[in-house]
Every structure is written in structure tokens, then in C-alpha cells.
Design brief:
heterodimer, A: 453 residues, alpha+beta, PmbA/TldD fold, 2 domains, 6-stranded antiparallel β-sheet, 5-stranded mixed β-barrel, 21 strands, B: 476 residues, 7-stranded antiparallel β-sheet, 10 helices
């Protein structure tokens, strides 16, 4: 790790007088196993490394600063030289902007969270293969109606990141991760239905293959015999996995960058009631249970909790350095970046709704009649975080007399994000940290339009 | 292509890896006993810029090079990749990929590659030779044109990107192929604000060509289109809900076929019985008006290439002929099992990824009808002028696709604009419901995601009508 920080600092030390330089250096390995039909279908092992450099220079004439960026998938010395030269050259073309700047250390201490599981390296390749094979077998034998396992995967990896800048940022982190996922196909005569399951952790030894298998089988099998739902306006109860996805979209509109650029329906509404009173939404990457938990953000500032919605009232946004300066505030340590090939932008890593009092069963009982949505499709094509328009494809089960009833497919559920937030009737007690940028829990929303037959 | 004006830098003719090195690496890869070993090397250079909120943000330049080595033993594939293209780095990756071959005793196998056929870039003007200021000039023009389209436009993001991707594939099957792919794109996203909130409008151009793209594309017009889309939706009413006839405009996207059957005709899904089209070759799966083609050879289109990422030449494949399913799309691995050749559909996102079956440019052949007649003969329905993305579950055949510009059809006339919504249908059912196809065909660029990998594809269709599909709006 020190070595990576040395690479980053080595670049920073070459800054010219008056020039700001930030180097983001990452390195990692990954192993992926796919089992199929009792055999290893694919085994991939790889390591990769790369660097992204930002150069900030004061524009001639004092009209602000200019920033340039370049990256490469290599840490070889001559490659780094070229990346630095390219970033410098690119800076000359940016529009001078007083709000453009590198992050400055703000004194906030990074959370002491341990994302490195030493057990990570103890599993042999053969044991990893065995995990994938066992997962596939567990699904195939769980129920006579399972006719196929499309993919049973084990994947793990480790990643180290170091970041240094001329403003005095020095941050280094490392993490391990492990993942099991399975996609099951249940069948009855000509009909097929699918269900997926997964387990995530920081090492293979902490994964739960039986839970991954159980949920994949349950989800596929309970959809058998699915018919069409009738077009209606009703209460929709969303599965925790779907809620995690939806919160990811909502959090895009809570990015300070979207707000300052006039691309969020939340802009100008701080202090207003934007959601039902039962909705409290917090971003907290320092919670080690979060899939994307982190001690440092993409600019090397300490990650910290940010309250976004408090009992339905909009309380704030997440900011990186540039969006914060544009908004006249300070960074919330929320710069996210997609790796060494991209620049930081304000975003959420770990949003979660404060749990309500009822578990899923109790919510279904309380709702009585409606629709339970097990999974959604078309989120990228039908949910717009600027306008708030919301329309997704769905499969699920009808809710009758307070319990899950017959399965339904080929339907859509629609509303607007604004109206959905106001129409939340139950937030589940069943909070679970899922892969992605948000936790999930059962959520019931009234007054949704269901389109079906 | 006018090769005469190509500006090929010195050294670009050299292979990414010298053939004698490739031969030695492949020999090591099959040493422990393997059916096939392959080296895929890639050198990718990208540049991008965006103008957002009237400001040019950080220009980006990127470079990535490396090789992925694949070793196939029976039904098992081993894979390793490296950013180190030295012989030592490649040998280490070959040894790692070959770890799946446990039998040993493969012995020394001679690997002899055919002669090289170096590929020149399929671009008249390499973007790397164009001044950065010229790229920014395009963005400034787009920004200005979009803002001039109406006072309701409150935000404009214009983005430019280009990529040059040199690839080399060598395998123990005697493949030695190279390609030099240049892609250039520009897109504009506008936000319009009104009393009822904000709406977005998007338009893009993307082709497998160099900077000469902008000799033929009117950037101002593209920006105005994006702006008009956002402005018109400010007064849009909620889309209807329930099943309705839908007319899809020519050039609206073609994503219907990409999702309704494209993915379902990929042989990897077929092999695992994870497609509604499994075992249905020779059957009528669509209206007789449907002839669907996947064609990687269409020069300049977004899904175009000379050779695929397994070194097979791009090909034109008829998938559905007048409603009858004629063939699936194949990569090397799936084709081998069936004892047939690949159809040139083996693609991968980068050297870090294994190839799989992917579409190239997938489109419906045009029909005889007049587009305006199709609308005139639709008493009530939805007219979709532009589509966004989509998604499919190939196993059930259920798919969605989103509208980004749509209108109500009332009494055979296009009337009020509608807010965005997804439409949902089942592939084989919807294909049977195509009852009119016009002649105003065009292709649209898109990015297709599958199993974590993104590749550029084209989708196309002429104006057509589906007699009934579920529209997922909020209006009763």
C-alpha cells in the first residue's frame, strides 16, 4: 500500500510551481469461477493496475482555474510520464472556473473501518471452484421444478487505492470482496420462469451459499403459472432488492452536482416536505455493512454520514469539492469515481431508509390488497431522475387478503418519483445491505398505476 | 473509405505482438493439453470532452493496452489477462489461463500462424490528428443551438468522444487477424423547465468512422432535435396505461427487435435453454412481415468491424426470414459444440473480458407501406418518435423498452405529446403482432450490456405498427 502511495506522491512531486496535481492509483486482482452442469465452465484470474491524473492550473488573467485529466491502465514509468503530460495539455482547454479546485484536507478524520478480510487469501482456487459447484448443485436439487441453472458464479478480488495531491491529500485504502450469485430457471411444461440469488461478503468464507440458492429457487418457482394483472391503480409493495435499486435512482437526484446544474427535481426544496413523514434517508459510507463502505471518498477526503431526508423533510445533498464550491458550501466527502479512468463526481455510496416498525409479513397484512413487485426491468429506460417520471417493467405476486397470492408478469408500474416519495405508507423493518449504493427493505407505496392486460 | 487521406503514424503498422512471440505463447498455453488457445491483444486510445452548464469540463485522454489469453479444455475455459505485452508477461498469463488443463501430457504442439494481414484504420481522419479546439468547437455549437431553440432550455450537456481500438487475435486454430477500429460520437442532453417541472431531451450521433463524421452531420440540427424533445414534453400529458396499438417511427431506435428477439437468438442463451426461441429454427416465430438481419459488415455503422473479437470476419446473417426463424447468432465456443462455423458474433468489451455471443447491427428489413398511411390507419394508439433503452429476460421472453419522444394517435392523426414511459411485451407474441412495415429505414447507435460487458451496436427499423402492446403510463 505504501508503495502505491509512493507512486501517487511521486507524480504529485513533479507539479510545476502554481500547478495543482492529483494522482489516483489503483491496483487489484480478481478471480471468477462459473459452474455449469456440474463442471467449471469458466475460470478467470487476472490482475490490473492504473492511474488517473488531474492537473489544475490558474487560468491566464485570473479568471479561475482550469482542469485537465488523463488516465492509463498501466503503472509503468514512461506511461505515467505520458499521462501527466496529457493531463497538463488537456487543462489548457477547459473553461476557466473559480469553482474548479482540488480537494483540500478539511480535518475530518477517516472512519476506522476494516474492509480487508485476511481470510480472503486463504481460499485455494480449488475451494473457490467447489463453492460455485456446490451452489449450482444446491439449486438444481432444491426443487423438482428447477430445470436449469443459467449461471452459478463465485467471484472475489482485492483492491488497493492510493490518492495524493499538491493540496496535501494523502489517502490509501484497501478492501477485499467476495460474491456468489446464481440464476435459476424453473419450468412447467412449456413455461419457464427465472429467479436469482446471491451472497456478498469480504471473503469467500463468510458467504452463505444456501441462502443464495434458497432465494433463487423460491423466486423462480413462485412465478410459475404467472398470468397478466389487470390495469389498475393500487398499492405496490416493493421487494427489498427493488427498493435498493430505486433508492439508487433517487440518490442520483440528491447529488449536489445534479442540483447545482439544474438537473434534480429536489433543487431549491431544502426544508420542504418532499416525502411522507415515515421517510428518513441517510447516506453513511462509514457503516461497514454497506457494500460500498469507504473510509475515503474519490478525492481523498474522509467519508461521513449525511442526512438527506428527515421525517419527510429534505435536509441536504451530497457534495464533492467542485459542486460544493458552486453551491457555496463544503464537500460532504462524497466524491465518487468509477476507477482510475474517470474523474470524481458527487454521489452516494451507502444510502438507507430508517427502518419502520413492520416486517414484510406485517406490511402485506396491513396493505390487504395490492401488488407485490419481486423484480423490475427497464430502470435505465423508464426512470428519469431529472423529471421524476417513473415507469418500469415488473414481475411479482398479487397481494390478497394480506398475503402473497398468484404470480403475475408482463406488467408495468408507474408514477413519478415525487409522488411515490409522498405516498410511502410503510418502510420495512427488514433492512438489508445489498450490492449497490443503497440498502434495501420492504417498501409499500400507495396510488401506483399498474398496466397489464 | 479513402485510405489516401489517412494519417497513420509511424509504427502503427507494427503488430501489437510479433508473430514468433505469439507462437511461443500459444505453445505454452496448450502445453498441458488443451483444445484451443487464443491470444487477444488490444491497444485502446480514447479522448473525450464535455461542455456542461456552458463550461468545458476536464478533457480526458486515456490509454489501455494488454492481452487476454483463453485456453479451452473440453467444456472448460480458462482465462487470464495482463497489461504486460512483453513475452515474459504473456507467458505468465498463458500459464495462468492453462491452469484449467489438469490432464497434462499435452506434449509439445507446433503452433504455426499464417502470414499477417495488417489492418489500416477504417477512418479518413484519425481523431488523434484533430486539434482539441476543433472538438470543443463542436460542443460550443451544440450548446448554442440547443439554447437558441427556446427559452425553456435551462441546461445543456454536450459530450464528444472518440476511441481507436487496435486488436490482434491469434489462436492455435490458425487464426491471425488484426483490426483497427475508430469510433466517434457526439451527444446532447437538454433540460427544459416549465410550470410542471423539468423534462429532458437527448440526441446522439455515433459511427465507426473518424472525425470526418462531422463533415456529414449537422451538429446544430442534432442539438435542436434534443432541445425540441425536451421542450415538447413540458406540455406532455401522462402516457396511457394498458394495451394499445403502437406505431414506432422509422429511426426511432429499433430497440424493439434488439430486445424482443435479438438477445433471445444469441446461441449462448439457446445452449442453456434460457431463451424462448430454443429449438424453434424453421418455425414461424413472427409476422411474415418480419425479416430480421444482423450485419457486422455495414461500413461506418456503430456495430461495424472488419473482424470480430475472435478474429472471424464480420458477416451478414439473416435471423428471421419472412417470419420464419432461420438461425441463431454464434461465437466460436457455441459454434464448435454444434460443429458449425462462427457467425462472426464473438465480441468482448476489452482484453480483460472473455468473448461471448453479441449482436452487431441488428435490423428489420423495410416493407412496402407508407409511414403516414400507417398512422392514418390507426384510429387510436401511441406514436413513438424516439426510443431509449430496453431490457429483456430471454428465458421468459418478456421485454421492456422506453420512449423518449412519443405522441398520442387519435383518429389516425398524431396529436398530443406524452411523458416518457416503458412499454412491455413478450417477444414471440409481439413479433406476431407486427401488421405493417414501411420503407423509411434507418439505423440508430446504442450501447448493449450483457453479463457485465458493454459493446457498441446498431439497431434499425422502418416505421411499423404493433397491433397491441402494454403501455406503462400513469393515465387511466
Amino acid at each position: 500500500m505504501t508503495e502505491l502511495l509512493d507512486v501517487a506522491q511521486g507524480v504529485v512531486d513533479r507539479a510545476r510551481p502554481g500547478e495543482g496535481v492529483e494522482a489516483y492509483v489503483a491496483r487489484g486482482t480478481e478471480t471468477e469461477v462459473r459452474a455449469y452442469d456440474g463442471r467449471v465452465e469458466q475460470l478467470a484470474a487476472a490482475s490490473s493496475a492504473g492511474i488517473g491524473i488531474r492537473v489544475v492550473v490558474p487560468a491566464p488573467g485570473g479568471a479561475g482555474n482550469q482542469v485537465g485529466f488523463a488516465w492509463a491502465g498501466s503503472l509503468e514509468r514512461d506511461v505515467i510520464d505520458q499521462v501527466l503530460a496529457d493531463a497538463r495539455d488537456n487543462a489548457a482547454y477547459a473553461t476557466p472556473d473559480p469553482d474548479v479546485a482540488l480537494a483540500e484536507p478539511d480535518g475530518a478524520a477517516p472512519a476506522e473501518i476494516d474492509l480487508w478480510d485476511p481470510d480472503f487469501s486463504r481460499l485455494s482456487t480449488d475451494q473457490k471452484i467447489q463453492l460455485a459447484l456446490d451452489l449450482e448443485r444446491a439449486v438444481r436439487h432444491a426443487d423438482p421444478r428447477i430445470r436449469q441453472v443459467d449461471a452459478a458464479d463465485y467471484a472475489d478480488g482485492h483492491r488497493e487505492v492510493a490518492l495524493a495531491s499538491t493540496t496535501g491529500i494523502r489517502a490509501a485504502t484497501r478492501r477485499t470482496s467476495a460474491f456468489l450469485s446464481v440464476s435459476a430457471i424453473a419450468g412447467h411444461s412449456a413455461e419457464s420462469q427465472t429467479g436469482s440469488g446471491f451472497s456478498v461478503g469480504r471473503a469467500g468464507s463468510s458467504l452463505d451459499p444456501s441462502e443464495a440458492a434458497r432465494s433463487a429457487v423460491e423466486r423462480a418457482v413462485r412465478m410459475l403459472g404467472a398470468g397478466r394483472a389487470r390495469t389498475q391503480r393500487t398499492v405496490v409493495v416493493f421487494d427489498p432488492r427493488v427498493v435498493s435499486t430505486l433508492l439508487g435512482v433517487v440518490s442520483a437526484a440528491l447529488s449536489g452536482e445534479a442540483v447545482v446544474k439544474g438537473r434534480s427535481f429536489f433543487a431549491g426544496r431544502v426544508g420542504e416536505q418532499v416525502a411522507a413523514a415515515g421517510v428518513t434517508l441517510v447516506e453513511d459510507p462509514t457503516d461497514p455493512r454497506a457494500f460500498r463502505a469507504a473510509a475515503y471518498d474519490g478525492e481523498g477526503l474522509a467519508c461521513r454520514p449525511t442526512r438527506l431526508v428527515d421525517a419527510g423533510v429534505l435536509s441536504g445533498f451530497v457534495y464533492d469539492t467542485v459542486s460544493a464550491r458552486r453551491a457555496g458550501t463544503t464537500s460532504t466527502g462524497s466524491g465518487v469515481r468509477g476507477g482510475y479512468s474517470s474523474t470524481p463526481a458527487a454521489g452516494c455510496r451507502a444510502v438507507a431508509l430508517a427502518p419502520g416498525p413492520l416486517d414484510q409479513e406485517a406490511i402485506l397484512r396491513s396493505v390487504g390488497e395490492g401488488l407485490y413487485v419481486q423484480s423490475v426491468t427497464g430502470v435505465h429506460s423508464g426512470v428519469n431522475p431529472v423529471s421524476g417520471d417513473f415507469s418500469v417493467g415488473a414481475v411479482g405476486l398479487l397481494v390478497r387478503t394480506g398475503a402473497l397470492a398468484e404470480p403475475v408478469r408482463e406488467l408495468t408500474v408507474a408514477s413519478t418519483l415525487q409522488r411515490m416519495l409522498q405516498s410511502v405508507v410503510h418502510v420495512g423493518a427488514d433492512l438489508a445491505w445489498l450490492p449497490g449504493t443503497a440498502a434495501g427493505q420492504t417498501l409499500a407505496i400507495a396510488d401506483m398505476q399498474v398496466s397489464g392486460a | 473509405m479513402q485510405q489516401a487521406s489517412s494519417k497513420v503514424a509511424a509504427g502503427d503498422d507494427a503488430p501489437l505482438i510479433e508473430p514468433p512471440v505469439l507462437e511461443r505463447v500459444l505453445q505454452v498455453a496448450v502445453r498441458r493439453g488443451a483444445d484451443m488457445a487464443e491470444v487477444f491483444a488490444e491497444d485502446r486510445q480514447t479522448s473525450g470532452a464535455s461542455l456542461d452548464g456552458r463550461k468545458v469540463e476536464a478533457l480526458s485522454s486515456g490509454r489501455e493496452r494488454g492481452a487476454g489469453i483463453r485456453v479451452v479444455v473440453g467444456e472448460t475455459t480458462g482465462f487470464a489477462h495482463t497489461a504486460d505485452l512483453s513475452e515474459q508477461g504473456l507467458l505468465a498469463a498463458a500459464t495462468a489461463a492453462a491452469a484449467v488443463a489438469r490432464q497434462g501430457g499435452g506434449g509439445v504442439r507446433e503452433v504455426a500462424l499464417p502470414a499477417r494481414r495488417p489492418a489500416g484504420p477504417g477512418a479518413e481522419v484519425l481523431p488523434s490528428t484533430v486539434a482539441k479546439a476543433a472538438k470543443l468547437e463542436l460542443l460550443a455549437r451544440a450548446d448554442e443551438a440547443a439554447r437558441a431553440a427556446g427559452g425553456a432550455i435551462t441546461q445543456v450537456t454536450a459530450a464528444y468522444g472518440d476511441v481507436r481500438r487496435r486488436v490482434l487475435v491469434a489462436s492455435t486454430d490458425g487464426v491471425l487477424a488484426e483490426d483497427d477500429q475508430v469510433r466517434t460520437r457526439l451527444n446532447v442532453l437538454c433540460v427544459a423547465s416549465g410550470d410542471a417541472g423539468m423534462q429532458t431531451g437527448y440526441e446522439s450521433v455515433a459511427r465507426t468512422v473518424g472525425f470526418e463524421l462531422f463533415d456529414r452531420v449537422d451538429v446544430d440540427e442534432l442539438a435542436r432535435t434534443a432541445a425540441a424533445r425536451a421542450i415538447s414534453k413540458l406540455s406532455a400529458r401522462p402516457a396511457p396505461s394498458g394495451e394499445l396499438p403502437v406505431v414506432l417511427a422509422g429511426g426511432s431506435g429499433g430497440i424493439l427487435f434488439h430486445e424482443a428477439c435479438g438477445h433471445g437468438l444469441e446461441a449462448d442463451h439457446i445452449a442453456k435453454d434460457a431463451s424462448v426461441y430454443t429449438g424453434r429454427v424453421g418455425e414461424l416465430v413472427a409476422s411474415p412481415l418480419v425479416t430480421l438481419v444482423d450485419d457486422g459488415t455495414l461500413v461506418g455503422e456503430w456495430g461495424n468491424f472488419a473482424v470480430d473479437d475472435e478474429g472471424r470476419p464480420a458477416a451478414r446473417n439473416v435471423l428471421i426470414d419472412h417470419g420464419i426463424l432461420t438461425d441463431y447468432m454464434w461465437d466460436w465456443l457455441r459454434a464448435r459444440k454444434e460443429g458449425r462455423p462462427s457467425s462472426g458474433n464473438g465480441r468482448r468489451q476489452s482484453y480483460r473480458h472473455l468473448p461471448m455471443v453479441r449482436m452487431t447491427n441488428t435490423f428489420l428489413l423495410p416493407g412496402p407501406e407508407d409511414p403516414e398511411e400507417i398512422v392514418a390507419q390507426t384510429p387510436r394508439g401511441v406514436y413513438v418518435a424516439k426510443l431509449g433503452g430496453g431490457q429483456v429476460n430471454t428465458t421468459t421472453g418478456d421485454f421492456v423498452f422506453g420512449t423518449t419522444e412519443a405522441y398520442l394517435i387519435e383518429n389516425g392523426r398524431i396529436t398530443e405529446p406524452l411523458r416518457d414511459a416503458n412499454l412491455i411485451g413478450n417477444g414471440p407474441e409481439i413479433l406476431r403482432r407486427v401488421d405493417a412495415v414501411a420503407g423509411d429505414f434507418s439505423l440508430t447507435p446504442g450501447t448493449c450490456g450483457k453479463d457485465g460487458q458493454s459493446v457498441p451496436v446498431g439497431c434499425g427499423q422502418a416505421t411499423l405498427r404493433v397491433t397491441g402492446i402494454t403501455v406503462g403510463g400513469t393515465a387511466a
